[in-house]
Amino acid sequence: MRFFRQHLFQANATYILAGDEVVVTKAGKHTFGLDRFFSGLLQKVVPGLAFFALSLVNTADHTSSPIAVAQVVRSKPVSVPLPASVSPRPIIKGKPGRPRGSKNKNKAEVTLTPELQQIQTMIQALLLKLAGWLSVTYVALDGHFGNNNALQMVRQCHLHLISKLRSDSALYFPYTGPQAKRGTRRKYGDRVDYRHIPAQYLKQTTVADGIETRIYKATLLHQEFAQSLNVVIIVKTNLQTQAWAHVILFSSDLTLAWDKLVEYYRLRFQIEFNFRDAKQYWGLEDFMTITETAVTNAANLSFFMVNVADCSRRQICSDEAAFSVLDLKAYCRGYKYVTETIKMLREKPDPILISEILRQVACLGSVHNTVAQLSPP
User: Which of 29, 54, 97, 288 has its CA 20 to 30 A from that of 64?
Assistant: First the structure.
């Protein structure tokens, strides 16, 4: 946290929280937390470790900085066998419909799963560290958290959730017609037909490469959620074949503009680049430790090095897109080779010659030509 505040934080930028789980494949049997997890990259269940990470995403330059990491450890369910003399209780079928005397449940009062409890603890601890110097309003999570329990978990932290609903979610317009004089007031209106959304909710229409994209925004209701949702529906249609598909994004903040909602959910994907760098360059996929403390330290060190590399790239080159981690490693390796070689010389060369040698050596392992234009640190 201190490193981020001193070297990466931009006071005039707006930040959102992004969270996601990363799975690391592992062999063996003795690593702490080893279990079988679904890998989105491999699209199958694999033996390994899982970590949940929170990052601060800068909405101005679209960069993500991992700020908190926790290992996901599943608790083993305990099954208590029944004595041989005890037979299972027979299932008695009751009358169909709602039992007489049952009361409505408050959907805002939910029982959080261990996964949501862990995430809530991480968010609350992070907000305490951010208090006084950085204000965060939104938490962007993927479609796995597009449910009422996750929304209530985020709202208990006094934040707003941005996520995605299933494409077959049953959404309803609020009822605006006349109410009956007796009985419960009607809340739900017509169900949303994603192929025929009223034109009054259309916000934008674009056509590119034969694909028409329509974006709708409305305040809608879902029977499983405790509150109204700020929903953005993106419908894409192939103008030649008329094939279509749609995506449903939502937020608990009813005042959030539709373009900001779409932008913030897209920025959630920036945390995936943190996962890629941590695995590819900084040892998240390669550490061999097995104890709980050592595994935690290895994972946190990998993500910390992601921030160190980001800081170094900003200091060396202003155009980060044209200066990758491979370029950074080539630059630092070339600088080290040049300085160590100069130490062995009896007479130190001219500084201009040293700069030229550094640029030439750094280019040997670089990907982009930007390295040849850099000055020595």
Answer: 288
What is the Cα 149 distance to its own chain's centre?
A: 17
What residue ranges in the chain does DSSP mark as E strands? 15-25, 35-39, 44-58, 63-72, 138-140, 160-165, 171-174, 188-191, 202-208, 211-222, 229-238, 244-251
Q: Apex CA 322: angle with CA 317 and CA 324, to 5°? A: 85
Helix axes 292-316, 270-280, angle to 10 degrees: 110
Please name which of 164, 191, 166, 186 lies closest in space to residue 176, comparing C-alpha atoms.
186
CA distances from 1 to 71, 246, 278 (A): 18, 38, 17
125 Cβ neighbours under 8 A, 6+ residues apart: 68
Instruction: Give me the residue spans of the domains in the chain.
Output: 1-75+107-141+268-316, 320-373
> What is the residue whose two structure tokens read 């450890």?
73
Query: Would you tell me how many other CB atoms lie within 10 Å of the CB of residue 272?
Result: 16
Which amino acid, 74? R
Q: What tokens were used for 374? A: 């850099």
The closest alpha carbon to 235, from 204, 270, 200, 273, belongs to: 204
Mode of pairing for the β-strands spanning 44-58 and 63-72: antiparallel
Interval 59-70: pLDDT, tens:
999 999 999 999
pLDDT single digits (tens) 263-302: 999 999 999 999 999 999 999 998 889 999 999 999 999 9
Question: What pLDDT, on a 0 to 100 scale, did the predictor assign at position 124?
Answer: 96
